[in-house]
Amino acid sequence: MEALEPPRLAVRRFRAGDLSLQTVAGAAALAAAFLVCLIAYTIVRDAKPAWSKDGLAFVTRDAWDPVKHVYGAGSFLFGTAVTSLVALALAAPLALGVALFLTELAPRRLRGPVTALVETLAAIPSVVIGLWGILVLGPILRDHVEPALHSTLGFIPLFGPPASTGSSVFTAIVVLTIMILPIVASISRELFLGVPGELKEGALALGTTRWEMVRGVMFPYARGGIAAALILGLGRAVGEAIAVTQVIGSSVGIHWNLFATGDTLASKIAASYQGAEDGAQVASLVYLALILLVFSLVMNVSAQLIVRRVARRQGIGAARA
Amino acid sequence: MSTHSLTKATLRAEGLPRRRAVNRLMELTAWLAAAVAVAILGVVVWSVARRGAGALDLDLLTKPPVPFDFGSTPSGLSNAFAGSLVIVGLATLMALPVGVLVAIYVNEFARPWVRTAVGLALDVLNGIPAIVIGIFVFGLFVTGHGQSGYAAAFALACLMLPLVARSTIEVLALVPGSLREASLGLGVPRWRTTLSIVLPQTVGGIVTGTVLAVARVAGETAPILFTSAIVGPQLHWDPHHALQTVPVAIFELSESPDPSDHARAWAAALVLLLFILCTSLAARRLAARSRAGIVSSR
Q1: Domain A72-320 in this protein, CATH class
Q2: Spans of all domains in chain A
Q3: The pTM is what?
Q4: Per the CB 3.0–4.6 Å rule, which of A152, A235, B174, B266 could disulfide with B52?
C-alpha cells in the first residue's frame, strides 16, 4: 500500500495553483473540525440558563413541569437507560447470530441477498419504523404480547399492567432493537470476515465443532471489535428520537413497568418541538441535548479507542507470527 | 472390533454427542436470527406497501393538504414533497463541495496526524444524534430569525458531510499512486494533477457516496423538527420560510387520531421508502461497477 502515499517532489517549486487548492481544501477540512466545536459551543451556550439555575441537580431531578418551571432530566435519563440497554441486550445476540450465519453458515447463494436485506433494514427511515410501530406493532403488543407476559410473569415488576393506548416503553424497546440490529450485525459480519482462515482451520483440525471454533477462536479474535460495535449500537439507540417519540407515549416519572408509557432524552426533545417558546423550557431542552451530546462523544471516542487498541495489538501479533 | 468400541467409548467420555448437540443448537439459533432479521424487514415493508398502495394516487403528489377535510376535497401532500426536494437539494449543494474538498485535503495534502484528526472529527460528527444537530441549528439560526428551509438544509448538510467526505476519502485512496507520479513526472502541477487526473477517476465513487447520503437524509425527521416544521398547508418552494417535508408530514400524520390521516401517512411512507430503496440500490450497483473500474485500471 506504499503507492497510496502522495509522492513527494524532490524540488518544490512555488505554484500559485497548488497553494490555492491546498488552502481551499485545508479551509474545508478546518471547517469540518470547526463545525464539531461550533456544535458543542452553541449547545453549551444555549443550555447555560438551565445550567446556571440548576447545575448538576438538573441531571438527576425527576420532574418536568412547564407550569411551575421545574425541569429535570432524571426520568428521561432513566427511560433512555432502560430502553437502550434492554434493546441492546435483545439485539446483540440476534445480531451476532445474523453475522455468524452470513459468514459461516449461509449457503453461498443466500449470502449476498441476505447481506443486502440486512443493510436494507438499516436504510428504512426511523419515521417509517415509528409509523409502523405506532399503528401496527403497538396494538399487537398491547392486545397479545403484553397481557400474556403480564399474566404469566406479572410478579416481576418489569411486567406490570399494560397501558391502554398501545404506547409503551416495551414498544420503544422493540422498535430500537429493530433499528440497532442491522448496525451491529453488519459491523460484526465484517469483523468475522477478518478472522484469519488459518486460525479457524487450525481449530477445526484439532477436532472442535464449529460452535467451539466460533467461541474459542472467532469471538476472542473479534472481541474488541464486537465491543466497539455494541457501543455504536448503543449510541444509535440512545440518540434515536423520532421512532421512540412515536411509540413511547410521553410521560414523566421513574417506574419499572415496561408496559407503561415513558420518555427518553431524545424523545422528550423531539416531542417538545411545537411548544418550545418559553425561555426556561427551551434552555432545559437544550440541556437534555447537551447530555445526549456528551454521551455520544464519550461512546464514539471509546469505540474509536477500542478499535485502535485492537488494531495495534493485532498488528503486533501478526508481526510476531 | 475392540478398537472400534474403544474409540466410541473414548468419544463418549469426551462428550462428543453433547458437543455435537450444542453445535447443532447454536447453528440453528444463527439460522433463526437471520430468519428473524429478514422477517422483520419483510413485515415492515409489506405493512407499508399494503396500507400505502391503497391510499397512493396522483392527488397525494399534486394536491396540497386540506385542513379540516371531511373527505369531500381531494387532499394530498404536495407541499411536503416540494419542501423535501428543496431542502435535500440545498443540503446536497452545501455538503457535496465541502465534503469532496475535505477528502482531497485529507488524502492529497494532509500530514498523517492531521489526517487522523480530521478523520476523528468526521467520526464524531457522524456519531452526534440527529436530534442534537437539530437543536444546534435551532440555536444557531432559528432563535431570533424563525424557521426556514435554509436552516433545515444546513442541518441535513451537517449529517451528509461526514458521509460524503468518508466515501470520497475511500475512493481517493483507491486511485493508484503511479497515476499521480506519472502526471507529476510529466510536469503537471499538483493542483491540476489532483483536479483533472485523480478526481475524474473517483467521480463514480463520489456520486455513489452522495446518493447514499441523500437516501439517508431524505428520511431524517429529527433535524427538521426544530428548523422547518411549523408550517401551513400551502404549497410553496421558498426556502426563506419554513417548508413542510415528507418525514415531518409522516410524523405529524402518524400522531393524528384520524384514520384518513393515517392513510396519507402510509402512502407518503411508501413513496419515501421506494425512493430510498431505489436510490440506495442504484448507488450500490454503481459502487460495485466504479470500484471494479478503478481496480482493473491499476
Answers
A1: mainly alpha
A2: 72-320
A3: 0.90
A4: B266
